[in-house]
DNA sequence: GCTTTCCCACCTAGGTGTAAAGCT
DNA sequence: AGCTTTACACCTAGGTGGGAAAGC
């Protein structure tokens, strides 16, 4: 029995290049002339929609804020909507990932009941430049209303409500967003590009946090791309909802101190269309629109099973949404401009670049953007290290392309409208605006997705959404606050019992396996541990 | 200002191949006909020298065992020896990594005072086959004397003394060991090959552990390689000792349950000769002989600064030494047979393989070994998954080479003696046997080496060494038990305060930076945190 | 007709020993 | 003369989109 290393495919001689078309429209987007938040560092920060999730232990001021938010904005219950899909949202049905394989398909028609009820997102109605430079009014570092008091929570740490989340490489996200971001999903899993990278402010240096990400449907529609119109169209109702997996950042928990210094990158997260995926990748429906979300959960000290049970309601967490990271999942790129932008900005796609399509000036600008994106990945960056000259010069260069305008030309020379009007009404050419109001409410707590254990169900637990410039907005409606709280508790319980030992690529270190690849034994362990937390 | 991605070197056309010489001597080593310990799984397990480090909380039976060990074997104090080098061993001098830059060079002559005092290691006198199949009499899974009772320690967990550590890919280590293992050290850091991979038995499933590794000098000598004799010679006294860094496995802490299922691989550990290294790589002197060691430290629950201080003496840990992993650090390979074996067994060196030197049969055998080594890296392996057919067939194949004998031919056709006689007296051709008796005793607790903080000094804290077949052996003498205990406490304190968040490659995920590369800010944080634990 | 899958060329990132140059 | 450093060819490992083929 001769055993050989896994074979490597031999290279052949054919070189395929991407078809040529103008990238002017891609580059021709005005960049903000100032950076929100952290001017001194040069870091580009995106405005975040913050989802404040109240905890019973909220201090008076924070609770008042939350209450105010709830009172001044209509938070219509979508219980009936989510209830119709509720089989998969009940905690009991999420004990095992396999439960999702025959996920409920009840009442798909109920998914659209709230469509348009609350109108388009206000943030989308803002002038382009304004929306890109918006600062969260609640938590932005420059003038956080609660920063002066720095209200301690019941356990003595800095209040969660003060925490700010900043989207890195926002310029790149904006470029994709303007075209209509597409993300490839494959059976074996595909990374996102751009990578979602965030940093935090106002975390308590002495507190430890988990950072998580999930991706929720934006609406209940299925889309298709009209090539002749170069735009996305609604193709019908959404396919049956999939298990929403919560991806816990494998490095967690993080100290609040380091969260202030280091960028949290979700570059290892992978998207798949494989409903049977057992590797913790996030499962999405192709041709559906999705919104990534970032959650930060305070880690409790002295975790053990008893406290996990008794203090379930004391969990504290916070959710952030960046509208510019919305995307449509695809199995193959639809919009050629997206393909082009991916090729020109993702280093791994460099082999498809065709320098003949770009002038030296364009090439230089593009590489600046790439450099910026790559640089942001370094774990060594700290604020104020003054290494942002690239970003500086990039903006000067890119702004020179603004004359090209928002419209580009397709490969046939036809005028191309911006295709992402659905999400950027200010750029719309007549499409029916879609809202976030019926984002899927359920947040299945599957903290063990990459660790192997399905923790507990957690519906999207938004008590209210604070828009950076507009105050609270009902981006997501409250479904079951306790669910996300349970999920947070599960994260803490998992941390206390097994930590991140299954999430690191170093434990046994085969490069052939991803850190989220966990043997079934481990998955069972995790599952049982979580079960133990929920008597 | 055009910024471009880091340049990649262009490939040229010249192909350099390793010089050809026979590998028969390398392959011609009889392998053990049985596996120690885990026959049912097919996993090859190496005999470990276990260094029992007593804890004040040891239960009666374990303490009795330890006492017996101490009583029946001479544990002469080497306090004077280590005391002469003591500046760098005092906890106070290890607060900062920078302290090491001018490490003490006092009394180098004192290093050899115990040379030969205890005679050669008995394990080296064993018949070859016996030493390779030896099972630790204390802790080997098949008949652990204490397994039946499974004595709980004072905190209710399974006793540390029961824990067994097993060296993976022992066959490969033995092949190198027979030739005289050399490990390249470079300024930028070089991985070890073979990689040190261990698994554990009898860990408490509900307890969490840190797994650490350090590399300590075997003796106080400097070596040189005599090409004309194809053997290593003593070249004089050792260079001034270097700061011994404790490398904490970046995935820790691990649950005892997973430690029983998964192999802990130290493949990311790097060796360097750069005394100013700030990246947590292990610093070694070239042309010096070293012994890797594995430490497992029980993680305490409910870590906080108070308990870290008050319970310092309650730390529980255990140290394991595998003599077949001894090596000489080199900046360039000396023994061409080592070069050949590395090329033929390290997948990354495949480009230097010259198939003309090997028959198909030899090639097949070598690849089986490689496959085995690679396979052992998978984090997904669990015991009893029956995938060891490669290892099985490998042994059959390799045994057919035994006729070649222990001696090979150098490239000139001259008879080559085994060069590692110093460590394998049974293979010796007259070299003066060297012992482990004067292994450097000091174990500097530099848990923060890759995390950025030098925790505390910890001398090699051996209360006694249990040889698999021979009982206790004074491999290492007790210097300062409390030091390693402090180091363990520091590890726990670090875990409680910052966990492994600096150790993972995913936090910001640049592939250009290793997980141990931590910005100075983080290092200061870690250092101060540890300082806080040691008032 | 539209969507998905698969294999592939071509990248990034980085782990090897080589050979020549550099150092002492 | 012996040891160390450096650039580099050549690997492993795996992330890209292309395009043909397969589904559906």
Automatic annotation (TrEMBL), chains A, B:
CDD domains: T-box_TBX20-like. GO terms for molecular function: DNA-binding transcription factor activity, RNA polymerase II-specific; RNA polymerase II cis-regulatory region sequence-specific DNA binding. GO terms for biological process: cell fate specification; heart development; positive regulation of DNA-templated transcription. Keywords: DNA-binding, Nucleus, Transcription, Transcription regulation. It is found in: Nucleus. It comes from the Eukaryota. InterPro entries: p53-like_TF_DNA-bd_sf, T-box_DNA-bd, T-box_sf, TF_T-box, TF_T-box_CS. Residues 167-354 form the T-box domain. Residues 74-93 have a biased composition (Polar residues). Residues 73-126, 132-151 are annotated as: Disordered. One of its GO terms (cellular component) is chromatin. Its main location: nucleus. Gene3D superfamilies: Transcription factor, T-box. The keyword Transcription regulation applies. It holds the Pfam family T-box. PANTHER family: T-BOX PROTEIN-RELATED, T-BOX TRANSCRIPTION FACTOR TBX20. This is T-box transcription factor 20 like protein. It comes from Idiosepius paradoxus (Northern pygmy squid). The lineage of its organism: Eukaryota, Metazoa, Spiralia, Lophotrochozoa, Mollusca.
